[in-house]
Amino acid sequence: MGGNVQSGCSFSSLNGNSQNNTQCREARGEKMAATVPPVTRQITRDSHRKKTENPPVDLQEAQDCLIYDRRGVSIPFKSLYQDRKVIIVFVRNFLCYSCKEYVEDLSKIPKRALEDAAVKLVVIGQSSHHHIEPFCLLTGYSYEMYVDPERCIYQKLGMKREETFTESANPSPHVKSGLLMGQLKSIWRAMTSPAFDFQGDMYQQGGALIVGPGSQVHFCHFDMNRLDHIPINWLLQLAEVGETVDFSNKPKILHV
């Protein structure tokens, strides 16, 4: 107990010497300041979230899973990202009101912005391929859309199959409906659909990837719940698309 620490200060507080104890703490503080690099970037909840939402993803596991277009024609998952960079959004199911409203905003991204950046946009659901055409008409989405009815990719990439809500979660900027009204809309769409089904596993959560060319993963986010979508403008910036969209009212191009 009477030995010296590395800073050269003795623990003399046992003898009631508070002055030496204070000098010891100050010396140790100076040493820590010399060895610990200073914080040069402000840490916020959003920046922390962006940093931590890149779980390790190995596309090798999922690359040969088959996805289906609106005609029921199958292609391997890897064909989406072999030749160019692609933003891939996985939705929960086609009846999910928050997914519908998110895809409605995806449809507002100008094609020219994606073409100029050589980036492709793809949405993948997990229902029958028969639901692709009605969902595109409903949302106004005109980019590529496929389905993974067996949830092969969802499972192999490790996407969640339950919802987790946190008190610190930010509201999605793309979801306009409240929970009750949104669920009522989903039920009504199910009842009026030509084929009455849930259009996918109701417990399955979605996510977003930015991958390619090749199997390089630039960004990955797995949704915690139905409102945990990545803001679309984040995706555009992370994919190095030079324009973002103002979703507050009408589509408006913002140059960044």
From TrEMBL:
Domain of life (superkingdom): Eukaryota
Pfam (any one): AhpC-TSA_2
InterPro entries named in the record: PXL2A/B/C (IPR032801), Thioredoxin-like_sf (IPR036249)
Gene3D superfamilies: Glutaredoxin
SUPFAM superfamilies hit by this protein: Thioredoxin-like
Region of interest (Disordered), residue spans: 1-55
Name of protein: Peroxiredoxin like 2C
Species in which this protein is naturally found: Oryzias latipes
